[in-house]
Amino acid sequence: MSAVLERPRTASLRRERRWALIWSYVFLVLFAVLFLTPPLYMLVTSLKTSAEISAVTLPWWVFHPTLENYFGLFDSEAYRTFFRNSLVVSLSVVAITMVISILAAFSLSRMRFWGSATLATGVFLTYLIPETLLFIPLFKIFAFVQDWTGIEMMNHWWVLIIVYPTLTVPFCTWIMIGYFASIPKELDEAALIDGASYFQVLTRIFLPVALPGVIAATIFAFTVSWADFLYPMAFTTSVDQMVLPAGIVTTLIKGDVYNWGQIMTAALLGAAPPLLIYAFLMDYYIAGLTAGATKG
Amino acid sequence: MANGVAAEAAAPLPATRRRSTRRRFVRRKSWIAFLMALPLIALIGALVVYPAFYSLYLAMLNKGMEHFVGLGNFSFLFRRDLFWMVVKQSVIFAVSAVIFKALIGFVVAHFVHNIPAKGQRKWRGMLLVPWVIPPAMSTLAWFWLFDPSYSAFNWVLSRIGLHGVPWLGDPLWARFSVILVNVWYGAPFFLIMYLAALKSVPEQLYEAAAIDGANWWQKIWYVTLPMMRNIIAITVLFSLIVTFANFDIVRILTNGGPIDQTHVFATWAFQLGIEGGDLPLGACVSLFMFPILGVAAYFILRDINRRGNEA
Fold first, then answer.
1. B304 occurs within a structural domain
2. Does B31 touch chain A if contact means CB atoms closer than 8 Å?
3. Which residue of A has its CA nearest to B191?
4. pLDDT of residue B25
5. Same structural domain for residues B47 and B98?
6. Residues of chain B below pLDDT 50
7. Contact residues on chain A for B2, CB-CB shorter than 8 A
8. Domain edges within chain A
9. A206-216 tens-digit pLDDT
10. B180: CATH
């Protein structure tokens, strides 16, 4: 610093590093506050009564915590329906996605057929096509299908089970191809020589070895189908057919009357399943997230 | 490719019998492989590729979808000021949001990387929360934070002696707000990606740079950035597509308002096509997301091919 304080070089380096550390913590706290404000404010609001929400007091704190918003929602027939629909849709989509993408990934990473390399690239490209490009043609296509077959496609929650896999399958297949490709070829060749069928190779060797990938893909499929907002907004309209995100947004907000306590509670409970999965399986969650970019 | 694998496996058999059994084996194998990939092909073909091409045709019909109008919808759009406003707003929204997401992600990743390894997990866990909450839900929380009369932000501002801000009421502020929420939601994704990339940069490079007398800025510029170039390119490209196609945030926060000033392609297409009942015009609007997709696809494909050659 100055000529008076002649310190050895290592000491100044250490001091520099300590300052870097302190600044890192300061900024991390700042960003954590910034990042966590909305969810915490959801929680704070969900514990308030309507009277406290509209009172002119400190909005960031609860003075009279109550669970009445939560009980109000549990009693609400509509909200229970949204939750049930969401759960059924998401679980079915996860099952369908995993079957389709594991079979396809096995075939694309190991067995190969005419055009399989192109297909693998194509799968990745379809992952890039946004749903916002597809919802209008799909809307029209559903109308045709209804005309031809007489099956009513519009305004049924199960139609989401048909369309959501388009959001989940390409990425899950891509993750699984990455994991399967990292399994040494000798392993399945040995099994084939010992007389195993392809199906046995898949279930006895590939799935156990690539289990982290399977978990990561499952988490991805669940969170995507739980969170999607555009397709339910476009394809479902009546209250008993809606899933959570669309249901909360369209039914709880009625004109200019907002029951904010209830809306925040509904949103928080709707965010709870992905948050819980994340809390318990964070490493798999992050593995799935980074797999797309590091393995692609 | 399949031939090569099978040839190795079947090498020790006698020459004449070998060829026919091998060929049959290969053919059977590729049939099984094809059948296993069939659900994927059917799904993508029927619900992604077909609709994508169908929307090209749909965009060339009249409102009642009875007859073909060629490029009529496009020329109708080109004559509307609102269309050009939406183009501009989509570009501003996507580009500025992606830049800030990438910057914040990069900076915060460094902070997390700086602290001792045992604390990193906890911080990373906390900082990824915005990405985990379904965007429709968290946007509702933002909507409430931006509420015109009860805004908790404005409460803070008034406490420190500033005027409240019309977060969603004024066109400029509304544009700022939708970008802010998008940055908040997407920055953690960049953070995680860049943190993973930072961890893969060998420590020796930094030591070598330090011995050569590099300061922190030179270390970032000459070591970190070149090492992370690929991952930065991929994440930015990805995020650009997703942000360009964003629907949830704008729809919930402003629904395009005030006076249509915050519409992006997706929300405007929804309003025209689904709510307004003019499917061809809506399809037409959403088709304008194709150019950005094409550019992104080109770069990503190039990247995949290049990596394929390296391996």
1. yes
2. yes
3. A290
4. 67
5. no
6. 1-13, 309-311
7. 111-113
8. 9-46, 68-295
9. 888 888 889 88
10. 1.10.3720.10
Give the per-residue pLDDT at B2.
Answer: 41
Q: Is residue B66 part of a domain?
A: no
Residue B41 placed within a domain: yes
B237, two tokens: 């490209």
Quick check: A35 and B188 in contact, CB under 8 A?
yes
At B85, list the tokens: 């406003």
B286-306 confidence digits (pLDDT tens):
888 888 778 877 877 776 666
Question: What local confidence, expressed as pLDDT, does residue A252 receive?
Answer: 73
Q: Which position has the token pair 């860049």?
A: B194
Q: Are residues B127 and B248 in the same domain?
A: yes
pLDDT at position A45, please?
86
> Running DSSP on this structure, what letter comes out for residue A258?
E
Residue A258, sorted as left (phi over 0), alpha (psi -120 to 50) or beta, turns out to be: beta
Nearest of B270, B239, B276 to residue B252 by alpha carbon: B270
pLDDT recorded at residue B19? 63
Regions of chain A short of the pLDDT cut 50: 1-6, 294-296
B106 touches chain A (CB under 8 A): no
**Contact in structure between B108 and A28 (CB atoms under 8 Å):** yes
User: Which numeric CATH code is attached to A68-295?
Assistant: 1.10.3720.10
Instruction: Please report the pLDDT score of residue A1 as a whole number.
Output: 44
Q: What's the pLDDT score for residue B22?
A: 67
Give the chain A residue nearest B298 (alpha carbons).
A125
Q: How large is the angle between the packed helices B290-310 and A116-128, nearest 10 degrees?
A: 140
Q: Determine contact, residues A136/B269, Cβ cutoff 8 Å.
A: yes
- Write down the pLDDT at residue A238: 83
**Chain A residues 146-185 with a CB less than 8 Å from chain B:** 162-163, 165-166, 169-170, 173
Confidence (pLDDT) at B6: 42
Q: Which domain holds residue B50?
A: 2-58
Angle at the Cα of B249 from the Cα atoms of B247 and B253, rounded to 5 degrees: 125
Query: What SS3 class is residue A255?
Result: coil
Please tell me the predicted confidence (pLDDT) of residue A291: 67
N residues, chain B:
311
For residue A43, report the phi and psi dihedrals to the nearest 5 degrees: -60, -45
Instruction: Report in angstroms the alpha-carbon separations of A255 from A244, A251, A259, A260, B277.
Output: 19, 10, 11, 13, 22
Chain A neighbors of B266, CB-CB under 8 A: 130, 132, 230
Contacts of residue B197, Cβ cutoff 8 Å, sequence gap at least 6: B109, B227, B228, B231, B232
Q: Are A251 and A239 in contact (CB under 8 A)?
A: yes
Give the C-alpha separation, B145 to B139, whole Å. Answer: 10
- Do B145 and B269 fall within a single domain? yes
Domain count, chain B: 2
Q: Within its chain, how far is the Cα of B24 from the centroid?
A: 44
